[in-house]
Design goal:
two-stranded parallel sheet; 16 helices; 7-stranded mixed sheet; Aspartate Aminotransferase, domain 1; Aspartate Aminotransferase, domain 2; alpha/beta
């Protein structure tokens, strides 16, 4: 039985039961892309959640009247065992974004926060509203993170350094050993927070990850999410791995209570190696298709180790984004310091095929 067929069976079973009765066409209309649109904008994995995650979510939803009581530890024990860390090294959050916000608020009270000038920043506006001072350091000319520039910006009044690796939106992954040296060097002056939302999609996940520094007791916190490879963006489950004192500080600033449906799905998905490999293969296939589309149109995109591709198209990205939306394809093209860049996320292969045609038509058309 193929994975796709199994997933259809699971979904059909869910809609045949009590859970399905609650998910009417009206309520479902607000989930996913707008009707008739192809969404290649939010770095999601539309092949998820896994069949096992859907089954677990359905069972948990049937018990949705009850508060979560211990389920979070079941998930964290599974994750901690894989990474060979203690439960005290773990912190759970509603997606990784909540933990990122919690860390920015916690350490922002102690000093300034340094980060790359172009990176993931959904958590930054919240921190700034809370009075946190954030210091961006420009990328290098080749659009990679400037570790030397960031190190130079870490003065005595800096409490936290944030690095997204692979970086979003560029897709670039820093060399693992270079980043380790950076973390060890900076760790004596500030906490280094590594956002590894896309780690599972890198060429060498273990080498690229900084979890080994956590095991060594370094001043590092690693953030992960179930929103990307695992296809659970709407279920909001994330976690951090850090020294017990660092994990405890973040946990004390996390506000949301655990989501039982999301926790159950995450536990099932995390150990579903078949689904994980299936998703990776589809993401890589789609990524190659997008890269090929750019190159056939004379554009050399940045090399990516995420589920998205970033490229300078030589024209206003915001305007091109709007033209693509008029053709029913949603991409990202709003980067103030880089107005000619767009980011294309992966979708289902059939959706990426449509992107290939529409992009080439619009890019080659006058105006």
């Amino acid at each position: 039985m193929s994975l796709q067929f199994s997933r259809r069976d699971v979904v059909r079973g869910m809609f045949g039961g009590a859970v399905g009765l609650a998910l009417t066409p009206v309520s479902l209309a607000t989930l996913g892309p707008p009707p008739g649109m192809i969404a290649l904008r939010f770095n999601e994995n539309p092949y998820g959640p896994s069949p096992g995650a859907l089954k677990a979510a359905a069972k948990a939803a049937a018990l949705g009247a009850y508060y979560v009581d211990g389920m979070e530890k079941v998930l964290l024990r599974t994750i901690s065992a894989r990474h060979d860390v203690a439960l005290e090294n773990m912190v759970l959050s509603s997606g990784s974004n909540e933990a990122l916000q919690a860390a920015f608020v916690a350490w922002g009270r102690k000093g300034r926060i340094v980060l790359p000038g172009l990176t993931y920043t959904a958590h930054v506006p919240y921190a700034r509203r809370m009075g946190v001072e954030v210091v961006p350091v420009p990328l290098k000319d080749d659009m990679t993170i400037d570790l030397d520039g960031i190190a130079a910006a870490v003065s005595d009044d800096v409490s936290l350094v944030y690095i997204c690796n692979p970086n979003n939106p560029t897709g670039h992954a820093l060399d693992g050993d270079a980043l380790r040296d950076f973390c060890r060097s900076i760790g004596g002056r500030a906490v280094v927070m590594i956002d590894e939302a896309y780690n599972e999609l890198t060429d060498r996940p273990e080498y690229t990850s900084m979890v080994d520094l956590v095991r060594a007791g370094e001043n590092v916190i690693v953030m992960r999410t179930f929103s990307k490879l695992f296809g659970m963006a709407g279920m909001r489950v994330g976690y951090g791995i850090g020294r017990p004192d660092i994990a405890k500080t973040i946990a004390e600033h996390v506000m949301a209570w655990p989501n039982g449906v999301g926790l159950a799905a995450a536990k099932a998905c995390y150990t579903d190696d078949e689904f994980i490999e299936y998703s990776r293969s589809k993401i890589f296939e789609g990524r190659d298709m997008v890269v090929d589309t750019f190159r056939r149109n004379g554009i050399e995109p940045l090399p990516s180790q995420g589920n998205f591709v970033f490229a300078n198209i030589g024209r206003n990205g915001r305007e091109f984004q709007q033209r693509m939306a008029e053709r029913k394809i949603l991409i990202r093209g709003r980067y103030d310091q880089y107005p000619d860049y767009i980011r294309v996320s992966m979708g289902k292969i059939e959706d990426v095929e449509v992107f290939q045609t529409v992009f080439s038509d619009l890019f080659g058309a006058p105006g």
